[in-house]
Write a structure and sequence with these properties.
371 residues; 18% helix; single chain; 25 strands; 7 helices
Length: 371
């Protein structure tokens, strides 16, 4: 195998694929990426057996061949090469890879291609087409609410659902950790056959978000009962799905929160941030006291230090006090973007909703804390 490639091109590809490599895996081959040179292009593949990324890159292939190389070492070497240099890569017997660039030369131990897992990445015909910006935004506005609690593994990802609404199709992403919930839907321009809801793992969501961040194209998505495949230009991401039942999120979203509060987003965010400075780390509760035309934020910690701040608002609903985890409320407010946001309350023990006028299909739900 012998090929020449520019540093910028191969580094961009390595940035995409090396992120899924499991550094702690007991199988050495899974710490490697597969490099295949053929027909004036190279294909780089990485996998952790749950997620796989395959990316094709055009370059000058002098001699066809294949081998595998340690992902982290290869990535670090390419990253440290100066400028947009030309890199020459040679592997004569698949056991040693030589990399030359400028005056540098590296000889790296390889493992044979035959040890690398076989990844089936043929292009499926029954795909759905959705713009990359739509998927990226749905992920971006919901991923913060994914649970990290491994005992409830079915919450360790984002629920992906495609369903009908009138003459249109609606794609919906939902995430929850049991304390907060994020639901974001987008109405597609075309009618697409509905699909049963599936749960995308957190790691898949993070890697997909990276791949979609800098593109604005239509991507193809293939879905089966056990896996999902995203075709993004010359990149293919394949992932297993979480085998579990996602909670009925529609039952969690309250529809009788009649106490409506409209408040400046930045004003609320900065006030919660200030008041929570003294909050207990393990239980950072901030109390919201709703009064006529004013909301009072206050907290007290274990040392009896206190903080309080008033925000003038237009409010004439019920008067009560309700507590929230300050980090959770700030996460929600940070993910809204309108100058003014809408908070809907019922009483001091029921979940609230947070929304904005510019994105009516985006809704956040937050459970209160005991005060």
């Amino acid at each position: 195998m012998k090929f020449e490639v520019t540093k910028d091109n191969i580094f961009r590809t390595l940035s995409h694929i090396q992120g899924i490599v499991d550094k702690k895996n007991n199988l050495p081959i899974l710490s490697n990426i597969l490099i295949e040179a053929k027909n004036n292009s190279i294909t780089l593949t990485s996998t952790d057996m749950d997620i796989s990324i395959i990316e094709e890159l055009q370059c000058n292939v002098i001699e066809e061949g294949s081998t595998t190389i340690n992902s982290q070492i290869f990535y670090d070497i390419v990253r440290k090469i100066e400028g947009d240099s030309n890199i020459e890569i040679i592997s004569n017997n698949g056991k040693l890879l030589t990399l030359r660039a400028n005056g540098s030369r590296f000889s790296l131990a390889c493992l044979p291609k035959e040890e690398f897992p076989i990844i089936d990445f043929k292009r499926e015909e029954s795909t759905i087409k959705i713009n990359s910006n739509i998927i990226f935004k749905l992920i971006d506005k919901t991923k913060f609410a994914v649970s990290n609690e491994e005992t409830r593994y079915f919450l360790n990802g984002i629920y992906f659902n495609l369903h009908d609404e009138g003459n249109n199709s609606l794609v919906t992403f939902v995430a929850t950790d049991g304390h907060r919930l994020a639901k974001f839907s987008h109405k597609l321009d075309q009618k697409i056959n509905p699909i049963s809801g599936v749960i995308l793992p957190k790691k898949t969501i993070n890697e997909l978000s990276k791949l979609l961040a800098d593109v604005n194209i239509d991507i193809d998505i293939y879905l089966s009962s056990s896996k999902i495949i995203f075709y993004i230009n010359n990149t293919i991401l394949i992932s297993k799905l979480i085998d579990g039942t996602f909670p009925d999120y529609n039952r969690v979203i309250p529809n009788n929160n009649d106490n409506k509060l409209i408040i400046n987003r930045e004003r609320l965010l900065s006030a919660v941030d200030r008041v929570s400075t003294i909050a207990n780390e393990k239980s950072p509760v901030v109390k919201f006291k709703l009064l006529e035309n004013v909301i009072n934020l206050n907290t007290i910690n274990n040392e009896n230090s206190t903080a309080t701040e008033d925000i003038k608002i237009n409010y004439s609903g019920d008067k009560f006090e309700i507590g929230f985890n300050s980090k959770y409320i700030m996460d929600i407010v940070n993910n809204l973007q309108d100058d003014e946001i809408i908070l809907n309350f019922r009483d001091n023990s029921s979940p609230i909703t947070a929304q904005e006028n510019s994105s009516p299909n985006l809704i956040y739900v937050l459970m209160p804390m005991r005060v």
